[in-house]
Amino acid sequence: MTTFEIKEDFMLNGQPFKIISGAIHYFRLPTSQWEDSLYNLKALGANTVETYLPWNIHEPAEGVFDFAGMKDVEAFVSLAQRLGLWVILRPSVYICAEWEFGGLPAWLLKESGIRLRSTDERFMSRVANYYQELLPRLAPLQVTQGGPVLMMQIENEYGSYGMDKEYLKATKALMEAGGIEVPLFTSDGAWEEALDAGTLIDEDVFVTGNFGSRSKENAAVLQQYFADHGKKWPLMCMEYWDGWFNRWGEPVIKRDPADLAMEVKEMLKLGSVNLYMFHGGSNFGFYNGCSAREEKDLPQVTSYDYDALLTEAGEPTEKYYLVQQAIKEVCPDVWQAEPRTKTLKNLGRYPINKSVSFFQTKEQMITPVASAYPQTMEQLDANYGYLLYDMELKNYQRENKLKIVEVSDRVQVFVDGQLQEVATTALGSEMMLQPGDQATMEVAVLVENQGRVNYGYKFNNPSQAKGIRGGVMQDIHFHQGYRHYPLTLDPEQIDKIDFTAGKNPQQPSFYATDFTLEEVADTFIDCSAYGKGVVLVNGFNLGRYWSKGPIHSLYCPKDFLKVGANQIVIFETEGVELTAVTFSETPICDE
């Protein structure tokens, strides 16, 4: 039986072992790409793959679990083992990862006042229920039971959020009770305050650091922290950031490949490393995360290319070859090989052949929920996407003030079908209504959930509940009487779109094209002529696009296309009339 221990070195079968790892998130790649990505990691010279496990995809509704398809972590780990890779798993309930709500399920927010990432019994009881389902799947994969899993994480960067040691101990106890017997670890920023707050070093839980530069300085901080607590442990950077994520409206972030290779080389001389990311993949659907800011949070883009060693589509980059060379210089005995490559194709241009206003087809798609006061997405069990609030206001035949109180995230206000206001704020928006001739005004408020925060202090902030939390005020009184239309864009809703109901490109609209392909290939969809919205390919939600950039395309793996008949549906919210779907063999980005 294989053994793995943490002493002064990592010890594999009694011999010192340097972990050379890379991060690949199974849930960000179609399953057909797993093997090429894992093979390319091994060909780099790595011996280990690391991955997070997002709670929110595995328990999408409380008590409902999903480990199928792209969510089949057991299949991913088993494949890694067949390719000769060891595995590090991070099944902590919070993962950050620039992932929606840091992996926490949005349905937790239905519990008023719940304190997340704490010993709050309402939170920990949900953690326990999740682990009762998850851990029996992971336990057989441990190296102690013939599997490839060397270590598992308790919590992620907790020292950048809290200092509740009892919470960390309770999580550790749940994992051990669930049959986890491989070494446990935490990962935190490499500075004393974060390490003091986020680790369980006095409980002999292994401590790793997260950083992406200044290898010697950061390693020295970890080394001193170990010494201060009487530990003689090997050094490991659990997230060696080789690139960075991108946010809407900001320049694409790049890192010099030669600089990265130099720093990785220095880190390998000092200890073990996990490259974050090796292959980033995509935030398909509505799973992009969001950076927390005081006044206005900053949602992240659909692409999780990360400027990693493999592109979003899985192609080796200059970084790949330079880091491969750096690994060989420090570890000359590692096995390396040429990476696998692929061909991406432009699959053509296809005219949009039908469109309909969402306002005209909403009754066919969605059974509305009526209530006196507005409900949030979480209260309606529709946690992602959009929520339309429809209401009827008296027309006083003069300019009237309308105020939306406590709303997240992006708001479009339509009066009698005409766009009046666009706002992005968690506090609210205020506008003046212009009177028409009718006795009443139909006001429609479309709220987009642009992604819950994945890092920082706002996990317990009310703004993470999406939709209208306070209410809508006319003049200085709260309005009563709402019809709610949750738009999650699931396949059942898409199938119910009535494209004959009435076209109005000035309103949020659905556009569709039906076309035939003689072959399929990995490709990109050019969104540079679009405004803002979502693209669905044969029912699969590729994710969001937005004209503010910096990325103006969506990656479309061949898995979501078919030889023969295909359909693409686009939900466009900005009044831009779409005329065609155009494919590209390359991503389209701002310079």
UniProtKB/TrEMBL annotation:
Q: Where's the Glycoside hydrolase 35 catalytic domain?
A: 10-329
* Transmembrane segments annotated in the record for this chain: none
A Gene Ontology molecular function term of the record: beta-galactosidase activity
Catalytic residues as annotated in Swiss-Prot or TrEMBL: 157 (proton donor), 239 (nucleophile)
Annotated catalysed reactions: Hydrolysis of terminal non-reducing beta-D-galactose residues in beta-D-galactosides
Recite the UniProt keywords alphabetically.
Answer: Glycosidase, Hydrolase
Query: What EC number(s) are associated with this protein in UniProt?
Result: 3.2.1.23
Q: Name one Pfam family in it.
A: BetaGal_gal-bd
Do the record's keywords include Transferase? no
Gene Ontology biological process terms, A to Z: carbohydrate metabolic process
All copies of domain Beta-galactosidase galactose-binding, residue ranges: 508-566
Q: Does the keyword Hydrolase apply?
A: yes
**Residue ranges of domain Beta-galactosidase 1-like first all-beta in the record:** 374-487
Which PANTHER family does UniProt cross-reference here? BETA-GALACTOSIDASE RELATED (PTHR23421)
According to its UniProt record, which protein family does this protein belong to?
Belongs to the glycosyl hydrolase 35 family.
Q: What is this protein called?
A: Beta-galactosidase
